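A reminder from the course coordinator: this example appears on the midterm review sheet, so study it carefully.

Given structure:
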């Protein structure tokens, strides 16, 4: 008996195989059972005919409950009507464990109920599809950077200071002092880039931001590359190539999952570098023309980002933001110091910012000026200041939010479905 997975079922057309998984759904029509079986790699329908397996086994299967764990044996048959392209003509079913009455049924459940049962909701076809696409994006990220000579460097999660201000930090006791959960690994990546040239970190970050929007999580994952001897323009090109690559990988490897999500593939197929660009100045003019109450020097909210992105079919860079609304480490434009050499990349279809990046300040004097302006504690940032004393070079980097990218690629209404166990303002269970 050949033991295989549903994902590999096409290799065994016409052969008898064994699957180990769970009974996702069971329906009967007279002397025929239709079993929907899942095994983590996919879903397949098995057909059991009473006359073929005998009355005892047929009746035994009738008593099996949803999500009972089972071992199924059967002959693989090609069937173009089936979602997987194949069906199983069942010869035997062995019950491993009979599940209690399953709380998630096919009827409509409220979001709170589903989130309370997230540990079980993950088993549904839609959630499995999202997790597999997330996995592809993670693998594609690692492949892209390793192919281009980047070194993965792990940034600490406990930090002595903030990267972008202290108002949204989680504070914790660290023996006899205070520490914070990291908002970003970027400052540490700057140190690593001066050691290794091109680096990236990929890990969890935390924002104690009291936001309930469909774009925000409290705990999320960031990909943060940092590159020595890379200036603003080259930084944007790397971002374009990276995003194009990971979307292409999803299109190549996750067509089945995208179909489960009813994703419009043409929207993703158009994601090719280069991406359009608009300056902050022009974006303000555009928003004012659209009737928005906004003036130069204001930051953009979600509605503003949506309006800007609607003007383009691809992701769009908004560049040269006012220095005063951006982080202290961003390099001012030498030709126009009131704006910085920074850009946010806005995803189409109303998904907002998915990448933020900039060229960093490499001048010690200018960095000290910005540290003083922001009233940052010198002792906490001394190590970062040292980087401008010992072989400083032009360098740039960016950060991509994995969950926002998953939401956009999958076409999801809310970011809470993009991570296995979301942490939100009013939710830390399960």
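Designed residues:
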């Amino acid at each position: 008996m050949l033991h295989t997975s549903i994902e590999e079922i096409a290799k065994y057309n016409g052969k008898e195989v064994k699957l180990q998984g769970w009974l996702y759904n069971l329906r009967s029509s007279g002397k025929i059972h239709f079993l929907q079986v899942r095994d983590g790699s996919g879903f397949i329908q098995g057909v059991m005919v009473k006359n073929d397996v005998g009355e005892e086994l047929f009746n035994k299967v009738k008593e099996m409950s949803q999500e009972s764990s089972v071992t199924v044996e059967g002959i693989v048959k090609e069937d173009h009507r089936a979602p997987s392209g194949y069906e199983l003509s069942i010869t035997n079913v062995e019950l491993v464990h009979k599940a209690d009455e399953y709380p998630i049924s096919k009827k409509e459940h409220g979001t709170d109920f589903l989130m309370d049962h997230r540990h079980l909701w993950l088993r549904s076809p839609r959630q499995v599809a999202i997790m597999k696409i997330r996995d592809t994006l993670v693998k594609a990220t690692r492949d892209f950077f390793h192919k281009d000579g980047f070194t993965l460097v792990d940034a600490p999660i406990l930090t002595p200071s903030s990267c972008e201000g202290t108002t949204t930090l989680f504070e914790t006791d660290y023996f006899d002092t205070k520490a914070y959960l990291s908002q970003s690994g970027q400052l540490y990546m700057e140190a690593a880039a001066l050691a290794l040239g091109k680096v990236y970190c990929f890990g969890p970050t935390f924002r104690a931001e009291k936001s309930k929007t469909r774009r925000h999580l409290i705990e999320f994952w960031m990909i943060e590359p940092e590159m020595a001897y890379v200036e603003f323009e080259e930084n944007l090109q790397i971002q374009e190539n990276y995003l194009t690559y990971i979307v292409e990988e999803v299109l190549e490897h996750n067509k089945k999952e995208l179909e489960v999500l009813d994703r419009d593939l043409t929207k993703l197929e158009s994601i090719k570098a280069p991406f359009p660009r608009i300056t902050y100045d022009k974006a303000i003019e555009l928003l004012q023309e659209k009737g928005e109450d906004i003036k130069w020097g204001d930051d953009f909210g979600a509605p503003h980002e949506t309006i800007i992105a609607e003007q383009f079919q691809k992701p769009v860079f908004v560049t040269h933001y006012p220095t005063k609304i951006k982080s202290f480490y961003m390099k001012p434009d030498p030709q126009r110091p009131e704006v910085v050499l920074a850009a946010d990349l806005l995803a189409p279809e109303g998904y907002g910012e998915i990448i933020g990046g900039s060229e960093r300040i490499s001048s010690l004097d200018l960095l000290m000026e910005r540290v003083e302006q922001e009233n940052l504690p010198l002792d906490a940032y001394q190590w970062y200041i040292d980087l401008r004393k010992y072989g400083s070079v032009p360098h740039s980097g960016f950060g991509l939010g994995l969950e926002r990218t998953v939401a956009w690629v999958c076409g999801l209404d809310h970011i809470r479905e993009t991570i296995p166990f979301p942490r939100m303002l009013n939710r830390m269970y399960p």
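The longest strand covers residues 16-29. The two ends are 39 Å apart (CA to CA).
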